[in-house]
Amino acid sequence: MQPPLPATGTAKLLEVLAPFVPDEFINRLLPGNHRQGCPHYFGAAQLWRVHLLAVLSPAHSFNALVRLLPEQADWRRFALLDHRRRTPDVRMLSEFRATTGVAGLRRINEQLVRRLLRFVPIGGQTVAIIDATDLPASTADKKKMDAPGRPN
Fold first, then answer.
1. Is residue 109 part of a domain?
2. What is the pLDDT of residues 36-91, one digit of tens each?
3. Has residue 26 been placed in a domain?
4. How many domains does the chain have?
C-alpha cells in the first residue's frame, strides 16, 4: 500500500508534488510577455507554481502569500524562485491570470492531473474534486425570499 500524502501546508508535500508540475508544458504554452521597458523576472511556470502555493500552503490569499513568500524558503524552492528579495507581487499574479485566461489554466491543470493519475494505483481509493469554475456565485439576489424583496 502506498503511504498517504504529507499534510497540506508542509514542506514535505511541496517536495513530493514539485516533480509533477509540468514546467516545460507551461513555458511552451505561455512563452512570456516581454513588454518594452518592463523587466521579465519570472517565467510562466514560476508564476503558476506561486498560484499553486495558494492552495498548498496556509496562506490562502494572494496578498498573504506575497507577504510571506520572502520568508518561506520551502515555498520559494517549490516555486523555483532563487532570490529571497525578488518574488512576484500581487499585480504580477493578477496579470498572469488575466493573460493565461480560464482556458489556459484548465490546460495546465489537465496536464498536471494526467501526470498525477499515472501514479494512482488501479483499484485504489479515489477522490473527486468539484470544478466550480462555471457555478454561479452565491449572491444576495440568488438567495431564497420569504416575501417579495425580503430574504428569510
1. yes
2. 444 567 899 999 999 999 989 998 889 999 999 999 999 999 999 988 788 999 99
3. yes
4. 1
Domain around 112: 11-118
- pLDDT tens for residues 103-144? 999 999 999 888 888 877 777 666 666 666 665 666 666 556
Is 99 contained in some domain? yes
Using CA atoms, how far residue 45 sits from 23, 66, 67, 105, 108, in Å, is 5, 17, 20, 11, 10
d(CA 58, CA 55): 8
For 81, the grid coordinates are: 524562485
CB of 13 within 8 A of CB of 52? no
Q: Which residue has the cell 516533480?
A: 19
